[in-house]
Amino acid sequence: MRNITILIVDDETSYLYLLKGLLEQEGYQEIITEQYPENVMQIVESRQIDLILLDVYMPVINGLELLEKINQSNPHIPVIMVTAVDEVEIALKAVKLGAYEYITKPPDIDRLFLTIKRALDQRILELELDSHRSVAAKTPPSRTYFSDIITSSPLMYKVFELIEIFAPTNEMILITGETGTGKDLVARKIHELSPRRLNPFVAVNLASISSSLFESELFGHERGSFTGAISEKRGFFEEANGGTIFLDEIGELPKELQGKLLRTIQYNEIHRIGSAKPTKLDIRIIAATNRNLIDAVNIKEFRADLYYRLNRGLIQLPPLRERGDDVILLADHFLKMSNITYNKNVSGFSNEVLKILSSYKFPGNVRELENIIFNAVAKTKDSNTVSEINLQSKYLKLKNDNLKLLSIEDAIEEHIKSVLTYVGGSVQKAAAILGVSERTLQRRIQKIREKG
After folding, report:
1. Range with the largest mean pLDDT of 102-106, 315-319, 416-420
2. Residue 223, φ and ψ in degrees, nearest 5
3. Which residues have C-beta within 8 Å of that of residue 233, sequence separation ≥ 6?
4. Is 91 in contact with 104 (CB distance < 8 Å)?
5. DSSP secondary-structure letter at 145?
6. Between vectors from CA 372 to CA 293 and to CA 339, what angle results, nearest 5°?
7. What do you get for the CA distance between the two ends of the chain, in Å?
8. List of residues 6+ apart from 367 with CB closer than 8 A
């Protein structure tokens, strides 16, 4: 790899030379300084720049305008915004325009060097992957890596390609998709294909943690730090040190802890409850959600700066209804699994059942299909085929003709109502069938009630 080239842009010459000297002491040799922002695009177009440190407030053209131009012409160059003014709105706008990070003057030197290293690691990886992407785009990903994921869908092959691209990096990944689409499976696959594969993979379902225990469960506590803390406790982050932590249902993280997670990301450290001493971490964060986090950001339920930092690499999982023949492939797979579980020999599915499965929209996705097949096999006699009467048709009442008149959101609401009716109104049982947390289901029910 050639020498790294860093461009520093600031109208204050004293700051330019100070920062240049600090970077040279850190071992970076190719440092370009530029006092006049109007000259930057010419430099970027004539030199191979690996990273830019860019001031916000400058004459002639401000840093945000310049950032937008840089990102349009060279989106793979990481840009770290540095300014003397700590303004949340400016920081969020910078991140939206493509900035890698936003740091205030005078910068915390350790944080600055850590941010530069992360950004350069990403840049180096991008350069290394460029030569592989064109080949990967023309050929399906190696099925050896993904043999445990049942699919023949081109949409899922695209997901596999993203996994192969992101897995070798240390970047944070945000996995989005409806409930039951397999976000946990994708997170584990990223870890298995990463350099951290021999280290811990810690999965945390944030929706299942009591609100009063969030901080202790995530970050740990010292003995005596609160009533009931009879011994010290390592939190999930410490348990995952050296490996990967998977924060499922990230949208459920309370607002007051979102700032602490942001600090953990920025400084690679945590503070146990009751301890003033930080614990350093070497950790990769993968987050997942079935919520629209942009909507949560807009209504101030989720911090925008945290969202943009988590969203370094985005993987969107398709719903089962868009995966074509995967419904039948997965149904056959779950049939074999349920035969083993119940020590049965159910031979297959009737034609009527295959038609129902092919036309049903599965708001609960793969997890719902699994529940349906296991329940059906449990009620089917040996050597028989699964028939419509055993398919729990009470909560498959959404006929195909009716679904054509419904939006996906309306279909999901109707499905929730059907399941609640089937289980006699039990939120606990309905949540188990739908494959969601009780908290998530209660929030959905409340929205349905509010709509009337």
Report:
1. 315-319
2. -60, 130
3. 216, 220, 221, 272
4. no
5. T
6. 125
7. 62
8. 179, 180, 434, 435
Q: What angle do CA 186, 294, 193 make, to 5 degrees?
A: 15
Whether pLDDT at 118 is above 90: no
Helices 365-378 and 427-434: crossing angle, nearest 10°? 100
- Least confident residue range of 38-52, 64-78, 124-138, 149-163: 124-138
Nearest residue to 221 (alpha-carbon basis) of 270, 273, 261: 273
- Which band of pLDDT confidence, cut at 50, 70 and 90, is reported for residue 208? confident
Average of per-residue pLDDT across 304-317: 88
**Topology at the third CATH level for domain 5-121:** Rossmann fold (3.40.50)
b/e sequence 69-100, b meaning 16+ C-beta within 10 Å = ebeeeeeebbbbbbbeeeeeebbbbbbebebb
What pLDDT band is residue 317 in, cutting at 50, 70 and 90?
Answer: very high
- Which residue's entry shows tokens 């089917």? 380
How far apart are the C-alpha atoms of 452 and 445, rounded to whole Å?
Answer: 11
Tens-digit pLDDT profile for residues 433-446: 776 777 788 888 88
C-alpha radius of gyration, the chain, whole number = 26
CA distance linking residue 354 with residue 156, whole number of Å = 22
Please tell me the CATH code under which domain 320-451 is placed.
Answer: 1.10.8.60
Tokens found for residue 351:
């034609």
pLDDT at 452: 65
With a CB cutoff of 8 Å and minimum separation 6, the contacts of 256 are none
Where in the chain are the domains? 5-121, 150-316, 320-451
Domain 150-316, what fold?
Rossmann fold (3.40.50)
**Whether the domain at 5-121 and the domain at 150-316 fall into the same CATH topology:** yes
Q: 139 falls in which pLDDT band (50, 70, 90)?
A: very low
Q: Which residues are paired to 202 by β-bridges?
A: 245
Q: Rounded distance, CA 344 to CA 336, Å?
A: 9
Backbone angles phi, psi at 83, to 5 degrees: -150, 155
C-alpha 275/C-alpha 295 separation (Å) is 35
Task: Give yes or no for a cis peptide into 107 (omega within 30° of 0).
Answer: no
Determine the Cα–Cα distance for residues 394 and 157; give it in Å rounded to an integer.
34
Rounded CA separation 89/304 (Å):
10
Over the stretch 61-76, which tens digit does the pLDDT of each residue have?
A: 888 999 999 988 888 8
